[in-house]
Design a protein that fits this description.
The chain is 41% helix and 20% strand. It has a single domain, classed as Glutaredoxin, CATH 3.40.30.10. It is globular and about 35 Å long. β1, α1 (13-24) and β2 form a beta-alpha-beta unit. α1 runs parallel beside α3. It is of the alpha+beta class.
Length: 87
């Protein structure tokens, strides 16, 4: 099983959508609440190469982008491959 990290903000509808998709697939993830975690925004920007919007999602340390990117990976069947789960 892959390691999934997601940088979020409490009032972000895209964050809620991304987390709902992961929960629907029963994928465990680590959530980093950007506004309440000191240094999280700077860490996120550094890890993404400059992206400042949430959510930012990482699978096994690899940045895959945001909610729309996650949904597209799921739609095309590539998300299960990245997550190491059967489709």
């Amino acid at each position: 099983m892959s390691t999934v990290e997601i940088y979020t903000s409490p009032f972000c509808p895209y964050c809620h959508r991304a987390k709902a998709l992961l929960e629907k697939k029963r994928i465990a993830f680590t959530e980093i609440d950007v506004p309440s975690t000191p240094g999280a925004r700077e860490q996120m920007v550094q890890r993404t190469g400059g992206a400042k919007t949430v959510p930012q999602i990482f699978i096994d340390g690899r940045g895959i982008g945001g909610s729309d990117d996650l949904s597209e990976l799921d739609r095309t069947g590539k998300l299960d491959v990245l997550l190491g789960v059967a489709g």
